[in-house]
Amino acid sequence: MNKHLLALYALIVVSIIGLTFFVQYYPVSFFDLDITREIQEIKMGHLTRVMELISIFGNSAGMPISVIFAALMFYFTYHRRESCFVFAVLIADLLNLLIKILVHRPRPTLADAKILLIFTQSSFPSGHVVHYVVFFGFLLAVMIVKKQIPAFFRVLIGAFSGFLILTISFSRIYLGAHWATDVLGGYLFGFIYLAILLTFYLRDHNKHHGRDPIMKV
């Protein structure tokens, strides 16, 4: 492995550990309060509805449905390896749930933020962000490397995935579901897991490059 890449991974791991200690000692920090207030002060037409729609793929129903749907689409279009790798996303979701239980950070309350969605699980790290980074990050990577997939679908799915990865952070804070540090922790943990997933996927992809049949639609 490239030593610079390894150093980056090590830095991310150290950042996750440091951030975990920070949120345990400062469950409600001025940093989080300021960012939440700035984002929640944004006033636009149907912004609340848009933020809810952005988060839908990480909800209790949307999360498994989206994973199963993607896996079936890959399977029936003769991309069987991708179909199997998609299910690995669920491992990240389970690990994230374990971290939530261990850290047990309270979510934002009405005393500190506008709460537009109510959740009972712990706050750190954001499960939505972890899921979006790993699931949509993997879809984005597949759209980049699988030249057999028609360009229209590659651009459409890739752009949609990138959009959701970027906007899910604003959605979770705007809806009062998470603090900014929850979101940051979700990105850090999600990218580490995605990097591991893509390491195995791309290694196998290089072995089988050019052997998959053209996607049938």
Taken from the alpha-carbon principal axes, the silhouette is globular
Going by CATH, the architecture would be Up-down Bundle
Distance between the termini: 37 Å
Q: Describe the sheet with the most strands.
A: none
The domain count comes to: 1
Range of helix content: over 70%
Average pLDDT confidence is 87
SSE series: HHHHHHHHH
Total helix count?
A: 9
Radius of gyration: 18 Å
- Can you tell me the CATH class? Mainly Alpha
**Structural class assignment:** mainly alpha
**Total strand count, please?**
0
- Strand proportion, as a percent range, falls in under 5%
Describe the structure.
The structure is a single chain. The chain has 9 helices and no strands. The chain is mostly helical and 217 residues long. The C terminus is likely disordered.
Which short descriptors sum up this protein?
217 residues; mainly alpha; Vanadium-containing Chloroperoxidase, domain 1; 0% strand; globular; disordered C terminus
In short:
This protein has 217 residues and is mainly α. It is built from nine helices and no strands. It has one domain (3-207): Vanadium-containing Chloroperoxidase, domain 1 (Up-down Bundle).
Topology:
Layout: H1 3-25, H2 30-40, H3 47-55, H4 62-76, H5 80-87, H6 89-103, H7 127-145, H8 151-174, H9 180-207
Helix pairs in contact: 1-9, 3-8, 4-5, 6-7, 7-8, 7-9
